[in-house]
Specification:
Oligomer: single chain
Number of helices: 10
Order of helices and strands: HHHHHHEHEEEEEEHHH
Radius of gyration: 30 Å
Distance between the termini: 95 Å
C-alpha cells in the first residue's frame, strides 16, 4: 500500500502551525531568570516612552523638511475659505460644450474622478488632448491641498474647478478672457492669489516666447 510522505502532508497545509513546546518553555525560563522584566510588569511606562520618542523624532523630521513647504500652503489647506461656489461636474462640462468647446469626460481609473479630453485645432487638422482630472459629482471653486505626515504637499484633497480652468488656458483650449467670460472672473482676494499668479506667469511666458519668435 502507498504511504503518504509526512513532509508532503505538511506542504498540503502550509498554514498549519507547529510549535516546539520545549524550546518555548526554555526561552521563557531564560527571559524570567532574573525576575519579571520591567517592560512586562510596567507596560504603560514603555508605551509612554515609545510615544515620546516617536514625537521627538517626528519634530526633528518636520524641522528638516520645513524648507520644502510651499510659501502659501496654509492658505491652500483652508477648506472653509476654499469651499465656495460648488459646481456639478456634469454642468461644468456641459457649460464648456455650450460655449463651443468640443470636450468629453470619461472615467480615468481613479474613484471619484473623470478625465477631461478636448479636441483642439492644429496645423494638421485637429487633435485630441488630455487636460486634467475632474472630481465627481461636483467641484468646489478652489482646490484644497493635501499634506503628508510631515506637513509637505502631497496632491489634492479636493479638485477645484478654477484649477481645471487654468489647465484649459495653459493647454490652449480657452483664452483667459474667454474662460472668465464663461465662468466669471475670480475675486481679487487672498484665496485667488495663486490662481491669478499662475495665469500671470503663463501670460508673460507666452508674451516672451512670442517676442523671441518675432526676432
Amino acid at each position: 500500500m502507498w504511504q503518504v510522505n509526512p513532509a508532503y502532508k505538511q506542504l498540503e497545509n502550509p498554514y498549519k502551525e507547529y510549535h516546539n513546546k520545549k524550546a518555548t518553555e526554555a526561552t521563557i525560563k531564560e527571559i524570567l531568570k532574573d525576575g519579571t522584566p520591567d517592560w512586562f510588569s510596567h507596560p504603560d511606562h514603555y508605551k509612554a516612552f515609545a510615544q515620546e520618542s516617536y514625537l521627538a523624532d517626528k519634530e526633528i523630521s518636520d524641522g528638516l523638511v520645513e524648507d520644502y513647504k510651499m510659501e502659501d500652503q496654509e492658505l491652500l489647506v483652508d477648506f472653509k475659505a476654499r469651499n465656495v461656489n460648488i459646481t456639478g461636474t456634469k454642468e461644468f462640462v456641459l457649460k464648456l460644450r455650450e460655449n463651443g468647446i468640443k470636450c468629453h469626460a470619461v472615467f480615468n481609473g481613479m474613484p471619484g474622478t473623470v478625465g477631461l479630453w478636448c479636441i483642439v485645432p492644429t496645423k494638421q487638422g485637429t487633435n485630441v488632448r488630455y487636460i486634467c482630472f475632474l472630481q465627481t459629482p461636483a467641484m468646489i471653486e478652489w482646490s484644497v491641498l493635501r499634506l503628508d505626515d510631515h506637513g509637505l504637499p502631497n496632491g489634492e484633497d479636493y479638485r477645484g474647478w478654477r484649477t481645471v480652468l487654468s489647465e484649459l488656458i495653459k493647454k490652449g483650449i480657452l483664452t483667459e478672457q474667454r474662460a472668465h467670460e464663461i465662468f466669471g472672473a475670480p475675486t481679487d482676494s487672498i484665496v485667488s492669489r495663486r490662481y491669478r499668479r499662475t495665469l500671470y506667469e503663463y501670460r508673460h511666458r507666452r508674451e516672451n516666447i512670442e517676442v523671441k519668435d518675432g526676432f
